[in-house]
């Protein structure tokens, strides 16, 4: 088997299409070398080696060593240096690189190949002994912690101690001799911590590093990241071994990270950060504050690369447009300048905020780089959520505490927590939390996920906190250096304020501002790029998009977001208002029909007003109103006080009522007296609702001159007979109202398909239905025999164990529940070819489920108002 693919060393064996085998980094290094860009020579050990390694109890394939030796020899030839040569040693980096990038999750070792002998060679070949010894100590530090497992802070402590003893503040002030002493102490700590001396043989070092990268694939933080991002463990990681180039060999050297466009806003500017005389990880580690690439937006105290290294900068400008045109997407590029010569170390499609994804997609389509269809596929529908999130109310009073970098946009307000654990604790109690750290590391990822926003006091726009927060859509302000964080005391202090854990702060990730307390927020604007993309999406999608809404506010939000109607108005949600709930309880608890009739009569005007408001807002768009479907227990009077209240209103004694309440309470309300069953036992309830709907439709038709066509929906139907009964009764009520008012009305009466029996007998049910709407919440519950309300206690572990691919209440179970939907569609249309079909369960707003609904040929999906834009985009993508 071929386990190794070379790049930049004479011939390139890989290309960008080989991402699965070579990982993203390896494939793109090969691709850059292919298109003639300066890539330091190296080779990629394939992801298949990783799989083989784990399949064989952490043992390598027997022919791997020979292939690595051969590839190493090719790199040596290309560089004109020998690995382990005492005079002019070749040094390499060893990095992980999976199919998709997992920022900061995997381990990297730089400067590999140094030992007591080769360091002298590096002194000679570089002519810079300070640089050589600095590189050596960096290597021991990285290798020691990454490969040998010596705690990182052991090395930090030694360094701090040395600096204090020498009375030097900056690392750069340390001389070659100083670093020699540090190296001695580093080696001593390695010996003490591991019981073995630091490995001197470069080849041993190489195998150790390779093993550490493969080992890191299964470390806890990589596992967490994979879980959060649905990355299968079976993909494995590749290992890239690449000859070192040095950004820390003097003032004509530098290292940097840049984006071909602004990853926060998407603006078409060259965006990036670099550090002079520094090595790779310094930029992202947040230890020194990086400088901007371009002079245009630099402040006077900054030192942009454009001024400091004009030649290399010009070359980077070239690389920027070349790579963007080649990949047709925004690139995230790592580079190093060694003695004014530019090298590229990585390129990949850059992570970006939702706002940036949107702007870049639209701009690139308008620039002609991609098509409109491609632009539609470039924006992940679920990321639109971020754009719909609030921003700070510009009129609100505020006290600014500090300003950091605007690392990930949006506004977030919450209580302070200083550790990932504390964030999770507080968030699990329903608090909004802001994670405040000096800097973040991969150990903090779970806390960042649970937080509303992240604030760091150190690090730049490409620091760990910034990159991860952007990827997750969390608000982030990074590098707010004027804030002092004291983990021990659990406080942060800034400009005279000292805040404790649990105190409120507000972040504006768009400006980098940090405010005291809670600052009110407002809804974002939906014009510009957002409406352009939505327009493009609307022009290609086939599915209609409706919203689940019952309040006027929700209906208005839904329209603002582009809903084409209401697909589900849950009338039981209208019954909880303080002016209504009493009547509702009386209606349910009444013993005789006269008392029930009084309660129902009292509800009629409320319902008529409710429907009138909805019809007005929806202005002629279809509105599907579902007749009452409560799990009865939700309405029963709970405490003693409520019981007394209802008793008084009904003129009955409390004891009778108490008995009635226990008679009505069910052991399994979800499968009990709900849906059309309730309408069948108490026909007067549905009669009142149908009357209210009819009267409201007639009134709004008259008032606006636009015909309102109400769609009346019967819930939880299991048999055609049930639907027939309710339909007949409803038609009689409508006929009565029309007779009273001497008016005419077009209306539809349809049903929800939310029980397996309804799906299986959909051909019969369709005979009596004008439309179907799949209630995939109940259909999931009943098909899987999985309680909607109780599944939370064990379902997550099912997903974790891989027994279910995802939570079936979030993303439809295609094979099972989806099979019932497909059957319902086919049988329904077999009876009535033109039968209108929709879905109104939560799945209506889930992109994966939407692609399934497109596939089975539904007419529309209906989802909560805030998901409407998501559904518009997801259905466009599903149609392409
Ligand atoms: C459903 O069951 O999918 C549905 C939309 O109805 P509800 O969630 O109100 O039961
Ligand atoms: Mg339901």
From TrEMBL:
One example GO MF annotation: kinase activity
Domain (PEP-utilising enzyme C-terminal) ranges: 527-878
Catalytic activity: pyruvate + phosphate + ATP = phosphoenolpyruvate + AMP + diphosphate + H(+)
Domain PEP-utilising enzyme mobile span(s) in chain numbering: 431-512
Cofactor(s) it depends on: Mg(2+)
Keyword flag Aminoacyl-tRNA synthetase: no
Keywords per UniProt: ATP-binding, Kinase, Magnesium, Metal-binding, Nucleotide-binding, Pyruvate, Transferase
Residues reported in the UniProt entry to bind Mg(2+): 754, 778
Family, per entry: Belongs to the PEP-utilizing enzyme family.
Name recorded for this polypeptide: Pyruvate, phosphate dikinase
Organism: Acetobacter indonesiensis
């Amino acid at each position: 088997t071929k386990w190794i693919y070379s790049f930049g060393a004479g011939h390139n064996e890989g290309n960008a299409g080989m991402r699965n085998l070579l990982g993203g980094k390896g494939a793109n290094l090969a691709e850059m070398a292919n298109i003639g860009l300066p890539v330091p020579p190296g080779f990629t050990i394939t992801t298949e080696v990783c799989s083989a390694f784990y399949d064989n109890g952490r043992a390598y394939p027997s022919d791997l060593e020979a292939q690595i030796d051969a590839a190493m020899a090719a790199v040596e030839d290309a560089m004109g240096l020998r690995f382990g040569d005492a005079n002019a040693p070749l040094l390499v980096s060893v990095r992980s690189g999976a199919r998709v990038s997992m920022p900061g999750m995997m381990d990297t070792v730089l400067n590999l190949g140094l030992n007591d002998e080769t360091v002298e060679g590096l002194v000679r070949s570089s002519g810079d002994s300070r640089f050589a010894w600095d590189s050596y100590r960096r290597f021991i530090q990285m290798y020691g912690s990454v490969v040998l497992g010596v705690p990182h802070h052991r090395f930090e402590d030694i360094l701090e101690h040395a600096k204090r003893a020498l009375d030097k503040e900056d690392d750069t002030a340390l001389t070659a001799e100083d670093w020699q002493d540090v190296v001695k102490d580093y080696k001593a700590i390695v010996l003490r911590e591991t019981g073995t001396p630091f490995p001197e043989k470069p080849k041993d070092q190489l195998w150790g590093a390779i093993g550490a990268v493969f080992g890191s694939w299964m470390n806890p933080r990589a596992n967490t990241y994979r879980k959060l991002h649905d990355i299968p463990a079976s993909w494995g990681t590749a290992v890239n071994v690449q000859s070192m180039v040095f950004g820390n060999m003097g003032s004509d050297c530098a290292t940097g990270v840049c984006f071909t466009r602004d990853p926060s806003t998407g603006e078409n500017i060259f965006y990036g950060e670099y550090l002079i005389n520094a090595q790779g990880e310094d930029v992202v580690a947040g230890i020194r504050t990086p400088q901007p690439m371009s002079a245009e937006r630099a402040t006077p105290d900054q030192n942009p690369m454009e001024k400091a290294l004009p030649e290399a900068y010009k070359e980077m400008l070239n690389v920027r447009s070349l790579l963007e045109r080649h990949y047709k997407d925004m690139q995230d590029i790592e580079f190093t300048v060694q003695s004014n010569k530019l090298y590229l170390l990585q390129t990949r499609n850059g992570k970006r905020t939702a706002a940036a994804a949107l702007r870049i997609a639209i701009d690139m389509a308008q620039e002609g780089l991609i098509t409109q269809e491609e632009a539609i596929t470039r924006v992940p529908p679920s990321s639109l959520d971020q754009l719909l999130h609030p921003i700070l109310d510009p009129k609100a009073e505020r006290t600014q505490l500090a300003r950091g970098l605007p690392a990930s946009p949006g506004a977030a307000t919450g209580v302070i927590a200083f550790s990932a654990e504390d964030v999770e604790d507080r968030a699990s109690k329903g608090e909004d939390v802001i994670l405040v750290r000096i800097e973040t590391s991969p150990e903090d990822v779970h806390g960042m996920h649970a937080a509303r926003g992240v604030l760091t006091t150190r690090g730049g726009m490409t620091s760990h906190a910034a990159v991860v927060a952007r990827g997750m859509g969390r608000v982030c302000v990074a590098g707010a250096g004027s804030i002092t964080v004291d983990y021990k005391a659990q406080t942060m202090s800034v400009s005279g304020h000292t805040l404790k854990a649990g105190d409120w702060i507000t972040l504006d990730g768009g400006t980098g501002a940090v405010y005291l307390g809670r600052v009110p927020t407002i809804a974002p604007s939906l014009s510009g790029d957002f409406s352009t993309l939505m327009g493009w999406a609307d022009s290609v999608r086939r599915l209609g998009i409706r919203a689940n809404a019952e309040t006027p506010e929700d209906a208005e939000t839904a329209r603002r977001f582009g809903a084409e109607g209401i697909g589900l108005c849950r009338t039981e949600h209208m019954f909880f208002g303080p002016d209504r709930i009493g009547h509702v309880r009386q209606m349910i608890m009444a013993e005789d029909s006269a008392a029930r009739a009084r309660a129902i009569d009292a509800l009629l005007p409320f319902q008529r007003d409710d429907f009138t408001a909805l019809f007005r807002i929806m202005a002629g768009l279809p509105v599907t109103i579902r007749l009452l479907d409560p799990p009865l227990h939700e309405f029963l009077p709970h405490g003693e006080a409520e019981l007394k209240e209802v008793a008084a209103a009904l003129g009955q004694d409390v004891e009778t009522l108490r008995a009635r309440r226990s008679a009505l309470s069910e052991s399994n309300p979800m499968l009990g007296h709900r849906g059309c069953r309730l309408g069948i036992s108490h026909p007067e309830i549905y009669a009142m609702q149908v009357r209210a709907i009819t009267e409201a439709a007639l009134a709004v038709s008259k008032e606006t001159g636009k015909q309102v066509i109400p769609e009346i929906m019967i819930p939880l139907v299991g048999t055609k007979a049930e639907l027939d009964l309710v339909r007949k009764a409803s038609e009689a009520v409508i006929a009565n109202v029309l007779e009273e008012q001497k008016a005419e009305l077009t209306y539809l009466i349809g049903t929800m398909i939310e029980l397996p029996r309804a799906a299986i007998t959909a051909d019969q049910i369709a005979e009596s239905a004008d439309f179907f709407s799949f209630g995939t919440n109940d259909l999931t519950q009943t098909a899987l025999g999985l309680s909607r309300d109780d599944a939370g206690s064990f379902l997550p572990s099912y997903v974790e164990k891989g027994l279910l691919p995802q939570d079936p209440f979030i993303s439809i179970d295609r094979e099972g529940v989806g099979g019932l939907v497909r059957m319902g569609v086919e049988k329904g249309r077999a009876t009535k070819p033109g039968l209108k079909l929709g879905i109104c369960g939560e799945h209506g707003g889930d992109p994966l489920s939407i692609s399934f609904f497109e596939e089975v040929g539904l007419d529309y999906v209906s989802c909560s108002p805030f998901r409407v834009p998501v559904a518009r985009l997801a259905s466009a993508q599903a149609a392409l």
